[in-house]
Amino acid sequence: MEESADNPKIDRRKFLVTGIRATLLAGIGGVAVLTARKTLSGQTVWQLDPAKCIQCGRCATNCVLAQSAVRCTHVYAMCGYCDLCGGYFKPETKTLTTGAENQLCPTNAIKRRFVEDPFFEYTIDEPLCIGCGKCVKGCGAFGNGSLQLQVRQNICEHCNECSIARNCPADAFSRVPANKPYLFKGFEQGNTKDKK
Hints:
alpha+beta, elongated
């Protein structure tokens, strides 16, 4: 049969096929939107409890992302702004300079800036941080623990089963409310003021 103005069956067939396709696409789009909304605003998200973390280094290697979603966070309200920072310098450093041979961080993600004698400010360059926990371990051993590991929610894929959590020997990963996604040792959950 040829398509013509006086053959209404072809027009109806085209109409039905087009309608079915449009309905399927709308349905798939609706499911995608609901899934995205549930994932982004979900009830819970994965987070690392710094009070349980043993800085084993697995956060850097077990994430599904090429560069882990776990990053070092500096809790400035806890920091002593030490000249000899256990999270910045390698143990038994001879000179307290910013030279690469003296720095504990393998990616140079921690920046040291002189404030006034004897105080220094330490900031984290998050894109360089791999979540290895070396600085956190040093800060906890020789300082007050102001450097802490956290899952950065803007980077995390929000996997249903977190591969880091599955491989964490300290069972430090858990689901936390999405509206309070950060756990800081020494602070009420979700309170992120004075932290970067």
